[in-house]
UniProtKB/TrEMBL annotation:
<feature type="domain" description="Ethylene receptor 1-like N-terminal">
    <location>
        <begin position="35"/>
        <end position="124"/>
    </location>
</feature>
<keyword id="KW-0547">Nucleotide-binding</keyword>
<keyword id="KW-0472">Membrane</keyword>
<feature type="transmembrane region" description="Helical">
    <location>
        <begin position="68"/>
        <end position="92"/>
    </location>
</feature>
<feature type="transmembrane region" description="Helical">
    <location>
        <begin position="98"/>
        <end position="116"/>
    </location>
</feature>
<keyword id="KW-0812">Transmembrane</keyword>
<dbReference type="Pfam" id="PF25487">
    <property type="entry name" value="ETR1_N"/>
</dbReference>
<keyword id="KW-0479">Metal-binding</keyword>
<keyword id="KW-0067">ATP-binding</keyword>
<dbReference type="InterPro" id="IPR058544">
    <property type="entry name" value="ETR1_N"/>
</dbReference>
<keyword id="KW-1133">Transmembrane helix</keyword>
<keyword id="KW-0808">Transferase</keyword>
<feature type="transmembrane region" description="Helical">
    <location>
        <begin position="39"/>
        <end position="56"/>
    </location>
</feature>
<protein>
    <recommendedName>
        <fullName>Ethylene receptor 1-like N-terminal domain-containing protein</fullName>
    </recommendedName>
</protein>
Length: 159
């Protein structure tokens, strides 16, 4: 437990490591290729969740909404690991990088579990032909989820 407390207390302390530019033998080309690629990946990973959020705002009754939010968080955190890798060339924030990677792992598995849970429901859903069909499909899925919750509660109450 002491190591965790020390880790968090020193989260932004970079005195233990040098910047990545002075670790090893980076050529200018190799270093800037690495930094430029990480910044480009981060930018794409930043734009994708913006598009997802825009979509969800335009269609707030979208089925499986938590999966969309998990995807957005997953992609943002993946992008954060890349931007930190680029920043580490000048500011060796390895502890912060490790924490962001740990959070990325947690959200990644939460997304995996949500997909495993919801994908069969999505495959069973009828493809909507119109806005009304889309809404009916969403309501049908919601009703099925509520019925399953009621059945589970009845089992717990032994009714």
């Amino acid at each position: 437990m002491n190591e965790i407390i020390t880790f968090l207390q020193q989260l932004f302390d970079t005195s233990d490591w040098p910047p990545r530019w002075v670790c090893g033998k980076w050529s200018d080309f190799h270093g800037w290729l690495y930094v430029g690629s990480d910044v480009a990946i981060w930018l794409a990973y930043f734009i994708i969740p913006v598009v997802i959020i825009w979509f969800v705002q335009k269609r707030p009754k979208v089925p499986f909404l938590p999966v969309f939010w998990l995807f957005a968080a997953f992609i943002i955190l993946c992008g954060a690991t890349h931007i930190l890798d680029a920043i580490i060339f000048w500011w060796p924030a390895y502890r912060l990088s490790a924490l962001v990677r740990f959070l990325t792992a947690i959200i990644s598995f939460a997304t995996v579990f949500a997909l495993i849970r919801d994908l069969p429901k999505l495959l069973d859903a009828k493809a909507p032909n119109s806005e009304d069909d889309f809404e009916n499909s969403r309501l049908r899925l919601e009703l099925e989820e509520k019925d399953a919750e009621i059945s589970q509660l009845k089992k717990q109450l032994k009714i």
